[in-house]
Amino acid sequence: MDRKEYKEENIESLLSQLPVVNDDMDRNDLYQKVSARLSTNKSFAWTKFKWIIPTFAALTVLFLLVLLIPPFVNQSNEYSKEADMQTGEASSANSDTGSTASNSTLEEEATIEKADQTEESERIGLTSDEKPDFVSHVLNQTIDGMSFIQSGVLDTNAQYLIPISFRVPSGYTRMELYNRLPQMIQEEEWGVYAFPLNRVSFTLNKGEEQVTMRIPEKYSLNEGYQKLYVDLLSYMFTPLKVSKVKIEQTGNETANFGMYGNVNEIELEPLGKQSYFVYQVSENKPQFLVAVPQDKESTLEEALQFMQVPVDTPNISPSIQKEMLFTVETYDQMKRAKITVSNQTKLRNNQTSLNMIESIMMTAKSYGYETVTFDLPIQKIGPYEFTEELPVPVAANPMPFTE
Amino acid sequence: MRGFFQELYDSYHTSLYQFIFYMVKEKELAEDLIQEVYIKVLKSYHTFKGDSSEKTWLFSIARHVVIDYFRKQSSKKSRIMEYFDFGEKGHIMKDNQPLPEEIALQNDEMKRIYQCLDLCTVDQKSVLVLRYIQSFSIQETADILGWSVSKVKTTQHRAIKALKVLLEEEGKEDNPNGSQRV
């Protein structure tokens, strides 16, 4: 036997025996430091925010002006109209008043049009501040024979793989796209980190369910990232039924793949169960659905509950509202899922709700489900109507193809 | 304010310091961060609604201070991720600090477990420190972390499993000839 075997109880016991580490700072010194920093914070806060009072005063004046002036203007219009009627000289109204009256008519028309728009918005469940310019983060199999490739990027903390997909434009093959990935991934614009594929090439070995990956001579993987790299290869090639990636490194018989050792091929396995969260670095960068791995014994319901809780990685946020209560029923040997929201959670037809629906569907897909039925307190979110069961998407995060 | 500070200090300081120290593994840094915790607590005590116990409230503030620190560190590091030399993984930083005296006096096995803690994720480490070093109950740990009880249990289970693998691997590296360490 090469090593000591540990039982879980041993580890728990060792942990509880870790010693108390003493704090060398005296209580009074600590208090002095804390109170000094508190007063610095206070003065800093005042310096930083002393512009607030004049700004607030100016805004108040502006607000009062906006509130008080229109009634006076309307009043003067009314007086003008009355005066016109009384004298029977409708056409002799001065040009200013006439133009104001016609503006007023235009305003009325605009108001009616706005009311119509509001009615239309309410019909589809939108509030006036929500515009229906949704961005879908999945690729649905709606186009016959649509061909696409999958790949992945990393979040800026290199914790999770963000799957991405591209539709194959006419005139290109899938393999050509795989070999163009470095040009197609806009690292800076998207707020992600790309895997280093610059000097890497892929060839599909026909009939062998195998891809050959050629890597340059000095190309090694840092420990901790090989797993994500192998996940990337799985994302890329398992949809093509590829089960093995053969690695060829210039000048070497085998390539060093860190924890995988010196290898010349890697077996691919379909990625397991995953919960999808929302990833976005800043408001001016696009949102992505990001896949957080789950236990293989976990259920879809557990995965969805997990998606309500923040993960400790910056820029990744829960995709399901914390207060939402739901049940998950499954049918047809776990191929069909029904998700019923069991409390009166407020759902709006907006991007946040769309992200939730698409995150749930991608999560369901990773759990092997083929369709999802939603029973929600809203009939439609983005392009999805909940009257029928929805097929799970084919891929996440479709990105535009760039030449 | 001083009286309130002293009350907090007497009741919780040792535990709070232990928590922060075992999360960041650096005494000076733990001292800086605990000051941050007191500042936040003293500034926001009036907002404490009593929904949780004072202890869990304090620890959840301490945890946020630690997470903020890790977050700042990881954003500093993130641009280092050039080519495939990504630098160390986000929060999972290799412990290069000298061992504090209290740990240095322990046997090899205890030193190993102390070092292996760094190879767990922040979530796993938080649960291990709260549950086993601080002896919080599962419910208290869930309250501090803002998680469900089942998430605490799952994370705890995974953390222990991860430590088991790490300890066995470490043991193998330290002991290549196969002689059993007692």
Structural summary, described in words:
The complex is a heterodimer of chains A (403) and B (182). Chain A has 10 helices and 19 strands. Chain A has 403 residues and is an alpha+beta fold. Chain A has 3 domains: 52-123; 142-267, no CATH class; 274-396, no CATH class. Chain A has a 4-stranded mixed sheet, covered by helices on one side. A 4-stranded mixed sheet of chain A has the order 13-14-15-18, with helices on one face. In chain A, strand 7 and strand 8 (262-263) form a beta hairpin. Residues 42-50 and 72-131 of chain A have low confidence and may be disordered. With 182 residues, chain B is mainly α. Chain B starts with a helix and ends in an 8-residue tail after the last helix. Mean pLDDT of chain B is 77; it is low at 77-95 and 175-182.
What's the gist of this structure?
The complex is a heterodimer of chains A (403) and B (182). With 403 residues, chain A is an alpha+beta fold. Chain A has three domains: 52-123; 142-267, no CATH class; 274-396, no CATH class.
Any key phrases for this structure?
heterodimer; A: 403 residues; alpha+beta; 3 domains; four-stranded mixed sheet; 10 helices; 19 strands; 36% helix; B: 182 residues; mainly alpha; Butyryl-CoA Dehydrogenase, subunit A, domain 3; 8 helices; 0% strand; globular
* Major sheet: arrangement of strands of chain A: 4-5-6-9
Q: Hey, roughly how much beta strand do the residues of chain A contain?
A: 15-25%
Counting DSSP H or I runs of 4 or more residues, the number of helices of chain A is: 10
- The tally of helices of chain B reads 8
**Estimated helix fraction of chain A:** 25-40%
CATH architecture of chain B: Up-down Bundle
The biggest beta sheet of chain A is recorded as: 4 strands, mixed
Radius of gyration of chain A: 31 Å
Q: Find the structural class of chain A using helix and strand composition.
A: alpha+beta
Oligomer: heterodimer
> How many domains of chain B?
1
What is the CATH superfamily classification of chain B? PhyR, sigma-like (SL) domain
What average pLDDT do the residues of chain B reach?
A: 77
DSSP strand (E) fraction of chain B? Answer: under 5%
Question: Helicity of chain B, in percent?
Answer: 55-70%
CATH class of chain B: Mainly Alpha
Poorly predicted tracts of residues of chain B: 77-95, 175-182
Shape of chain B: globular
End-to-end separation of chain B: 52 Å
Overall spatial form of chain A: globular
Determine the most extensive contact between two protein chains. A-B, 53 and 74 residues
Family (chain B): Belongs to the sigma-70 factor family. ECF subfamily.
Keywords (chain B): DNA-binding, Sigma factor, Transcription, Transcription regulation
GO molecular function (chain B): DNA binding; sigma factor activity
Organism (chain B): Terrihalobacillus insolitus
